Amino acid sequence: MTIRQESVAEGLFTWPDAPLRLIGSECADCGLVSFPAAPDCVRCASPRSKERLLADRGRLWTYTTQNFRPPTPPYDGPEAFEPYAVGYVELPGELLVEARLTEPDPEKLRIGQEMRLALVPYTVRDDGTEVMTFAFAPAEESDRSEESDRSEEETS
User: Fold this and answer.
1) pLDDT tens digit string along 26-56?
2) Can you tell me the distance from the alpha carbon of 132 to that of 122, in angstroms, rounded to the nearest whole number?
3) What rounded mean pLDDT belongs to the chain?
4) Is the model's pLDDT at 145 over the cut of 80?
5) Are 26 and 33 in contact, with CB atoms under 8 Å apart?
6) Hey, is 20 helix, strand or coil?
7) Long-range contacts of the stretch 14-21 (C-beta < 8 A, 24+)
8) Could you give the dihedral angle defined by the CA atoms of residues 41, 45, 50 and 55, in that order, rounded to the nearest 10 degrees?
């Protein structure tokens, strides 16, 4: 039984108090946008970086599938392993973000496909805490899910 939910790490994304967005940073000196947010620029070492919310949509740049349970450590996910996809999503005018993808079937993914940021369960701790992380979902899948949620709310 899930007691509560918490983020996989603080400062990666806005949740639960705001609409889901990744938290990056932008250097005031050279303009580099990076993720995750960093107090100092990773390009020019300027200490003048400020937090910036990143786009919640992008395009799939490349991907691969993870078909076997990675070694522990560093993997600390559930023992019952299910294959998943990992990809780079290009956020227009910002950067490439490496992330899990919600769609594990490579037949349903394509380079250039529109993707949308999503919140997904990562693992459940022994005390029942559900640990949440971000991933990218094919935009069509994500949009259909939101339409279904709205329809259910309207009929309630």
Assistant:
1) 999 999 999 999 999 999 999 999 999 999 9
2) 5
3) 89
4) no
5) yes
6) coil
7) 14/53, 15/119, 15/132, 19/56, 20/56, 20/117, 20/118, 20/119, 20/134, 21/53, 21/54, 21/56, 21/117
8) -10
pTM given for the model: 0.84
What is the chain's alpha carbon radius of gyration, rounded to the nearest angstrom? 17
How far, CA to CA in Å, does 19 sit from each of 15, 50, 53, 56, 118? 7, 20, 11, 10, 10
The pLDDT tens digits of the residues spanning 2-19 come to 589 999 999 999 999 899
Q: Which tens digits make up the pLDDT trace of 128-140?
A: 999 999 999 999 8
Give the 3-state secondary structure of residue 152: helix
Return the sign of the alpha-carbon dihedral for residues 69, 2, 120, 37.
Answer: negative
Average pLDDT over residues 121-125: 89
Indicate the residue type of 99: A
Q: Report residue 149 CA to chain centroid gap.
A: 21
Instruction: Calculate the CA dihedral of residues 91, 30, 38, 131 and round it to 10 degrees.
Output: 0
Helix (H) or strand (E) holding 91: strand 84-91
Are 35 and 97 spatial neighbours (Cβ–Cβ below 8 Å)? yes
Contact between 90 and 98 under an 8 Å Cβ cutoff? The reply is no
